[in-house]
Every structure is written in structure tokens, then in C-alpha cells.
Specification:
The chain is built from 5 helices and no strands. It is mostly helical.
């Protein structure tokens, strides 16, 4: 009997976007770390941050959060793509979806406390995690139906 995976497309497509975005964010974070350490860019960086109203410490913490989020995105993206057809791995993807949502909320909370809050940013940052979670949820429901644990 072939198992159907109704969340396959969500996990596959969102997983690919997470991998691409995560790798891109890793490169950007690495470049920002290098730039912070360069004396020739220190004055330009501090002037730019002053104009935007962000402290150097806030910027550094943002870089760290972005680096952590990029690793989470790549790992959960790979898990989603690799397990998109496997409803028996739906719980793993479900947990990954929760991690994505929680970390996005943590990053947005930090942005709010540091003064860089935007409702558009919150909505945009939750789109992929919520779609990933939805795909995992659909596969999880299919697994529960197959096991007979969900009554219709």
C-alpha cells in the first residue's frame, strides 16, 4: 500500500526556499562578521548605524541571530525536502515547523525590543515557517488516519 503525503509539496517547496535563503543568510552573516572586524570599515559602519539609530551591539546581536536562524533554516529545509514523501517522519517535520515559528518570533521580539519593529517584517518572517508547519501537519494527519488514530 502506497502512503500518500498530502503535505509533500509544501515541505518540498518551502524546504528548498529555506535552504536557499539559509545559505544566502550564512554568507551575508559571514561577510558582516568580517566587515565588523575591519578597521577601514569601522567608521563607515558606525556612521551608518547612527543614521539608522542602531547601536553596534544591537547590530552584532542581529548578525548572530541571523547566523543561528540561517543554520536552523538550512537544517529544517533539508529535513523537509528529504522527508516530504515520508509520512512516518511527519512528527520530525512538525517539530521542525514549531522550531522555525518559535525562532522567527524570538527574532521579531528582539527586533521589537531593539527598536526595529515592523508588522510587515513579522508577517513576512512567518510565511515560510507557517507553510512548512502546515505541510508537516497535513502529513501528520495522514499518518494518524493511516494508523487509525483519527476518527472522521
Amino acid at each position: 500500500m502506497t502512503k500518500r503525503a498530502p503535505g509533500r509539496t509544501f515541505l518540498m517547496v518551502v524546504g528548498i526556499f529555506l535552504i536557499i535563503g539559509g545559505v544566502s543568510a550564512m554568507v551575508t552573516s559571514a561577510m558582516n562578521f568580517v566587515m565588523i572586524g575591519q578597521e577601514e570599515f569601522a567608521l563607515i559602519l558606525e556612521q551608518t548605524l547612527q543614521q539608522v539609530g542602531i547601536s553596534k551591539t544591537t547590530f552584532q546581536i542581529s548578525i548572530v541571530l541571523t547566523a543561528i536562524q540561517s543554520v536552523i533554516n538550512v537544517v529544517t529545509g533539508i529535513i523537509g525536502v528529504a522527508n516530504s514523501k515520508k509520512i512516518e517522519k511527519a512528527s520530525l517535520c512538525y517539530i521542525c515547523g514549531i522550531v522555525l515559528i518559535v525562532f522567527a518570533l524570538i527574532c521579531n521580539a528582539y527586533s521589537a525590543f531593539s527598536g526595529a519593529f515592523s508588522i510587515f517584517s513579522v508577517i513576512f518572517s512567518l510565511i515560510l515557517p507557517l507553510l512548512y508547519f502546515w505541510g508537516a501537519l497535513k502529513n501528520r494527519q495522514a499518518l494518524q488516519e493511516e494508523q487509525g488514530t483519527v476518527v472522521r
